[in-house]
Structures are given as C-alpha cells and as structure tokens.
Amino acid sequence: MTARYALAGLVVLLLGAAPAVAQTSQGRFLIGVSGGVQGSSNGFGDAFDVTSQFGDPEQATGTADYPVKTGALVDGRVHVRLWKGFAAGVAFTHYSHRGDASISARVPHPFQFNQLRTVEGTTSTRRGENGTHVQFAYIVPVGERLRVTGFAGPSWLSVEQTLVTDVQYSQTFPFDTATFSGATTRRSSANAVGFNAGADVAWMFTRRVGVGGLVQYSAAQVEQDAGDNRRITVDAGGIQTAVGVRLIF
Length: 249
Hints:
This protein is mostly beta strands. It has a single domain (2-248), classed as Porin (Beta Barrel), CATH 2.40.160.20. The protein contains two helices and ten strands, in the order ααββββββββββ. It has an eight-stranded antiparallel barrel.
C-alpha cells in the first residue's frame, strides 16, 4: 500500500507542475524500451482432491503453495504529447518467473480407515504476465536534458500459470507409508482489468536519444481455471523497475 500512495503522490505532484516549465518540451512522440525486474509477493495456495489408487472410500486431498517472486521484465511504451506537458499513450510489459510449487497430500490406507498418510514433494511451475497499460501522462522538463514523466491509467493484465491438478504417489505392502512420485499440472490462462501508476525519468544525450529509468505499479485480480469447475483468484502485477533507451521525435 505504501508504494501505491507514493506513486500516486508523485503523479499528483507532476500534474501540479507549472505550465510555463512544460512549454520547453520538445518532440511529440516519446518512445521507451526497457528491461528490468518485477518485484512480487503474489504467491498463493490451492486445495484439491487427489485420485486414490485403489478406489478407497476415503477421499485423498492435496494442497499446493505457489511461489510468485521477483522475475525478469521487458517494457515498451509510446506516449504522444497532446498539449503542453499533457500526453497519452500505451505501454506493454512482459514478466516471467519459474519456481517450485510445494505439494502436500493426505492419502488413505487401502486396508485401514482413518489412517491417512502424508506425501510431500515439489514440481516446477511457471508464471507469465503480459500487461497492456493505457496511460495519461504529464511531462516535466527539468533543464535542457532531464525530463520527468508521471502517468496513471487502466491496465489489462493476462496471466499464464502452471497449476497442480493431481498427485501421483507410490506404495508397497504393508502400505503404512506412501511416497510422492510426481504431479499432474495444467497451464491456465486468464485476464482481468486493473490499473497502473508510475513515473519515468529520462536523461537526453541529444535532442532525440537518451536513457531513462522507470518505476511502475500495476495490479489486478485474475480468476484462473483450475479444471473440474474450480477457479482460483490470484493477484497479478507488482512493482516494476526498468532502465533502457528513450527516443523523442
């Protein structure tokens, strides 16, 4: 929440900057291509039924905890200056992260009731997010080479997530223990509308070419299809930081 308020305050500050400063802006199209990271704490958990090996009357159940942590980010954006310092544009982001989901299952004993056995293991998962961000911006030149841009607007976030749907396990007589042997997974894709806000600082080496860094926060809640009429609500987005090339035409 602190990051959201800080970004919102920066945008308000830029929108309140003196119009006379904005009149020194040059160029109509502002283009940025950057690489960086998305910091995220959007990990989540899920519970599901596990297929029993012997058709046991007791139901086997499982849980999975999914890590969603810092991963690589690619960002591209185009802003069009409309009037003085006011601009509008669109940005595209791609984030990806690989990790291991922690799996735990409780499976029934084939000969004894109320003797559930625990099996634990991990499986590789992947999280990918594509974002399309509409941005309303205000550009503030600071001297001849430095320009600061604050922006905010709606976002369309699309999430691809590996989800665990079943657990495989092995057991041998007398079946007092069971061992994790693998997991069945599926790729789930879903999207939702959210928002974005942030700021970009660019240092221009020439009138056309420079470098810059951006900080952006985006967020949305996405419902993933886990199969068997199950849906999981996950948080998408996070704090995005990136540096790269800035072009002005």
